[in-house]
């Protein structure tokens, strides 16, 4: 059978029926002459957190699932090829190399469709702050073509092995990789037959000393200093971050944390990235962009109120500060998209985004370009938006570099994937924390305007930190009231918001 015929063949999705000859499949791939090769088979459908934790031991791993994900979620682990760069502004060289490989690829599917390959990208928040040893396992920007890709959809799960052509040059190479594929499938079958390994949160030891970075008084003084700066100059908004450091009696069960986050915050994108001895994870409500062909969708998510408030939506709409904060984000995104030549559609009146702990003002934005774009280049143009940096962007960046001592690392950074066409999805890595053994560092931020109250901004960060606190079993889960009956009128137009 020719390699092309194999690649186009889709068979029944029962992995134990008509078991393949892995060696023969890999030999067919090796004769293709392509630079990159991949083999996809059906696999048991498992909890993604379970797959991530099992495979995030001794190798790089990433979980990405939830809101807007297609397939519904995936876990990638190991690295076929990887690149690093100082940041999104200097991504062109590795991006070119990765794109060339994505376009020189043969994919083969046995009893499952051969999935189109993706390259994954993660990047830190772009400031020039001093380095922090806590983030030493993470590069400022990483691109990777994963070795293994486990995907779960509503119909089936698959496992994909990715190889460079030079990794199949000798007969012993074929035997080695065939054996590894068989072992990976065996591991997944074992996970499927095991009883759930999720540890009960109630049984975890919750002795947990807490320290603030920076301390409350210092952070509120930073807010006051920022408001004073804004009252005297051109800076309109700056987003100030803080962290809470926790020390547990024993390492938290990350499988349990991820599963709980997914349950509590289903309308978010759940992510986890394992590097070395560190895991960065969270459930972010904010999508940076989704690009398909010439159409990009993004959103402005800024301005917030506690979801427990009885009249939360009315209070949010009545807040001049929150409306102005939100408008700055919409204005910046719309302006940048227009500068890039897009026709932009958005509502001039914000709606709401409901989460369990917070309600945000929310404006979806659609940008249609006259020619194809690349998701990574658009991400570099948009990130950081004023939702996580400030406005004007350059002034806010300078302010953060000069005054925010906290090293954000990948908090408020960007994470996602792109394919051979340049399409892709990226999120902003919010509501997140860095886990290392029995220690965790949870991050939160607040948008500061000239009339911000330091105490109110502190309370906002506490509310945003609540999500991971609940998932860790440190806080009782909150139950937000149903939305009130205020429904703002939505109008599609392309007029710039007037601040």
Could you please describe the fold and organization of this structure?
This protein has a 22-stranded mixed sheet that branches. The chain has helices at 3-8, 22-30, 48-55, 92-102, 171-193, 216-232, 254-264, 312-318, 320-339, 375-382, 393-403, 454-471; strands at 36-43, 61-66, 73-85, 105-110, 119-123, 141-152, 157-164, 210-213, 237-247, 269-275, 278-284, 287-292, 295-306, 343-347, 351-354, 358-368, 390-391, 414-418, 424-428, 432-436, 439-448, 492-493. A hairpin with a 2-residue loop joins strand 12 (287-292) and strand 13. The protein is α+β, with helices and mostly antiparallel strands and 499 residues long. The protein is globular and about 70 Å long.
Helix content: 25-40%
Number of strands: 22
Strand content: 25-35%
> What structural class is derived from the secondary structure elements?
alpha+beta
Set out the fold topology.
Layout: H1 3-8, H2 22-30, E1 36-43, H3 48-55, E2 61-66, E3 73-85, H4 92-102, E4 105-110, E5 119-123, E6 141-152, E7 157-164, H5 171-193, E8 210-213, H6 216-232, E9 237-247, H7 254-264, E10 269-275, E11 278-284, E12 287-292, E13 295-306, H8 312-318, H9 320-339, E14 343-347, E15 351-354, E16 358-368, H10 375-382, E17 390-391, H11 393-403, E18 414-418, E19 424-428, E20 432-436, E21 439-448, H12 454-471, E22 492-493
Parallel strand pairs: 1-4
Antiparallel strand pairs: 1-7, 2-3, 2-10, 3-6, 5-6, 5-18, 6-7, 8-9, 9-17, 9-21, 10-11, 11-20, 12-13, 12-19, 13-16, 14-16, 14-22, 15-16, 18-19, 20-21
Helix pairs in contact: 2-5, 3-7, 6-12, 7-12
